[in-house]
Amino acid sequence: MGFVANYVRNLASVAVAREPVRPLLVSFYVTHRCTLNCVYCSDGAGKPFKVDPAEELSTAEAKRLIAVLARETDTLDVTGGEPMVRDDLEALLAFAREQGMRTVLNTKGIGLPDRPELMRHCDVLVLSLDAVDPGALAEIIGADENTAGRVVDAVRFAIRHRDTTRTKVVLSAVAMPGYLNETRRVLDFAMERKVGFQPSPCIDGTVIRAGLKSSDEYRELVNEMLARKHAGGTVFGTRRYLQGIRDVEPFRCHPLLMPTLRPDGRLYYPCLESGRASVSVLEAGSYRAALEAAGNGHDIPRCRKRCHIFCHMGLSLLQRHPLDALGELKHWRH
């Protein structure tokens, strides 16, 4: 099943107050390893992913997993940790394409100019860029300015080559107290170069950082994002999402719209933030069997004031408001 077919089936579930469980996409954390120390990195419990040295699937095992997932959705989100620490990343992305999947790669991009084939296997390349100034970026990622410069170099490389590889480039930025002006600079950078801009507020565990809630500067920044979007700028996320992260509004979360898998192929149920991952999709034999086993005895909580981030809030609002989804589809095509 593809994104659109699953979306339509989920609409029927939402209409009768049932939990939508058809995945719009699947997020596969291919590794927890990372050489950086980003100040906002959190596994939902406040710990960086790198402190959990999860066992990783081999190339062959990861391909088997991707083949299983391709029977349920046509979009694969590859993330980490830092997925580029895996030498077989090109092979995994290429295999997903062979299975008929669209590929989304989330990365800081360090070393991308040395691995140009990666872009050829990506439909969407989401590059994490939280500041344009090397000094500010170095503080955010917990590295030196030379490393921060390599992050910016990767962004410029991707923008130069996006037409050749037919890759949509998106800049993902985390808005943090003390660095909001840098978030605005990333927004300007993206709009000037006509690449996507995907904002998320900084989260402590599962709740938006307190310093943002009371910040007039933060509200003004999100209002600017809304204005840019209204004017045709490539700001991703529906207006409801942007207003929601600005006002920290409660929302009904549907975590299984984007199921999340650990590096060892185990399914988080119902979401990464739960910390519960006891069922292997490969061992279960199918995603649906893994979902049934993982959900046995575990209800999906009705969270309303947590996880104001794109993958939870953005997708949940998209699923509950089809007219907004149509507008966003046109935006993505543009």
How would you describe the overall organization of this protein?
The protein is of the alpha/beta class and 334 residues long. The protein has a single domain (3-333), classed as TIM Barrel. The protein has helices at residues 3-15, 59-69, 89-98, 117-120, 134-141, 145-165, 180-192, 210-213, 216-230, 239-247, 281-284, 287-295, 310-320, 322-333, and strands spanning 26-29, 75-79, 102-107, 124-128, 168-175, 196-201, 203-204, 207-208, 260-261, 266-267, 279-280. A 7-stranded parallel beta sheet has the order 6-5-4-3-2-1-9, with helices on one face. A two-stranded antiparallel sheet has the order 7-8. It has a two-stranded antiparallel ribbon with strand order 10-11. Helix 4 (117-120) links the parallel strand 3 (102-107) and strand 4 (124-128). Helix 2 runs parallel beside helix 3 and helix 9 (216-230) runs antiparallel to helix 10. The longest helix is centred in the middle third of the chain and has 21 residues, at 145-165.
The ordered H/E elements are HEHEHEHEHHEHEEEHHHEEEHHHH
Helix proportion range: 40-55%
Q: What is the CATH third-level topology name?
A: TIM Barrel
Structural class: alpha/beta
What average pLDDT do the residues reach?
94
Question: Reading side by side through the largest sheet, how are the strands ordered?
Answer: 6-5-4-3-2-1-9
- CATH class descriptor: Alpha Beta
What is the subunit organization of this protein?
Answer: single chain
Proportion of strand residues: 5-15%
Shape: globular
What is the tally of beta strands?
11
Low-confidence stretches: none
CATH homologous superfamily heading: Aldolase class I
Gyration radius (Cα, Å) is 19 Å
End-to-end Cα distance, whole Å, is 24 Å
| Number of helices, counting only DSSP H or I runs of 4 residues or more | 14
Return the domain count: 1
Indicate the CATH architecture. Alpha-Beta Barrel
Q: Biggest β-sheet, characterized?
A: 7 strands, parallel
